[in-house]
Amino acid sequence: MKYICFAGEPADANRFGNKGLRLARLARSGFNVPDFFVVTPEAFSTNNIQCEIADAMQHICPDGTLVAVRSSSLEEDGGQSSFAGQLDSFLNVSGKDIAMRVADVWRSAFSERIRSYRQSQGLEGDISAPAVVVQRMVDAEVSGVAFAADPVTGDRDVAVVAATSGTW
């Protein structure tokens, strides 16, 4: 089974997660999206994906550029809940540390923080490993995020925009 997917491949939410799916759609629509690949949720149950990750890195960062390792679950950025900041993400990760950081993202999906958040949002069912986006880092002057509803309370009458100098 193939555990790595790239932006140009047919995007399936079950393999890409919501964030990965949206990044792939943006890239295919011609938006300037930093190169990325997705480690699929199925990789969680394998013993060794380091070789596949190393091969994928040669495609998106042959020069050894640092990457962001970000969660991409089906529940994130959804209609019911945002999961903003709930799962771990890692910035400025070097090639040798990517597999470890992917495992850290997976581990965060099973944390008490996630169990509590899911309960507060009324989400039922089993917790599963998310897809993980590995994306080329951008040396940003400003970065940020915007929500059409308050990510903590879910209040749709409140929009939240957060920005910071440099990389988030």
From TrEMBL:
Residues 48-166 form the Pyruvate phosphate dikinase AMP/ATP-binding domain. Transmembrane segments: none annotated. Keywords: ATP-binding, Kinase, Magnesium, Metal-binding, Nucleotide-binding, Pyruvate, Transferase. Its cofactor is Mg(2+). PANTHER family: PHOSPHOENOLPYRUVATE SYNTHASE (PTHR43030). Belongs to the PEP-utilizing enzyme family. Its EC number is 2.7.9.2. This is pyruvate, water dikinase. Catalyzes the phosphorylation of pyruvate to phosphoenolpyruvate. It catalyses: pyruvate + ATP + H2O = phosphoenolpyruvate + AMP + phosphate + 2 H(+). The lineage of its organism: unclassified sequences, environmental samples. Pfam families: PPDK_N (PF01326).
